[in-house]
Amino acid sequence: MCLAIPGKIISIDDTMGDLFKIAKVSFDGIIKEVNLAMVSEAKINDYVLVHVGSAISIINEKEANETMAILHKMQELTELEDGQKLPPE
């Protein structure tokens, strides 16, 4: 099944312009690099839906949290397990 997974942008590297803008996105503490070409207006602390390594839309925090809760219940987040986990704040 192909899903778009919500995550929170924690940093952005735009040194190569909007087309190659890369963000570090946290998916419940697991950090992945994501291309922001389709949502170049996204900024740090925004929530984005990510599909196959690219952010496809910006969503609000409530929608992101509700979607993550559903994905956890469905056990659909196994592909994130290989990611780097952030230490608790």
What this model shows, in words?
The protein has 89 residues and is α+β, with helices and mostly antiparallel strands. It has one domain: SH3 type barrels (Roll), CATH 2.30.30. The chain is built from 1 helix and 6 strands, in the order βββββαβ. The protein has one helix at 61-74; strands at residues 5-13, 22-27, 30-35, 47-51, 54-59, 84-85. It has a 6-stranded antiparallel sheet, covered by helices on one side. A hairpin with a 2-residue loop joins strand 4 (47-51) and strand 5 (54-59). The longest helix has 14 residues, at 61-74. It is elongated and about 40 Å long. The N and C termini lie far apart (33 Å). The relative contact order is 0.25.
Question: First CA to last CA: what distance?
Answer: 33 Å
Name the strands of the widest sheet in spatial order. Answer: 5-4-1-2-3-6
Question: Into how many domains do the coordinates divide?
Answer: 1
Low-confidence stretches: 84-89
Largest sheet: 6 strands, antiparallel
Estimate the mean pLDDT confidence. Answer: 86
Helix content: 10-25%
Number of strand elements: 6
Enter the CATH topology name.
SH3 type barrels
SSE string: EEEEEHE
Structural class: alpha+beta
Instruction: Write the CATH architecture name.
Output: Roll
Per DSSP, the total helix count is 1
What is the alpha-carbon Rg in Å?
12 Å
- CATH class membership: Mainly Beta
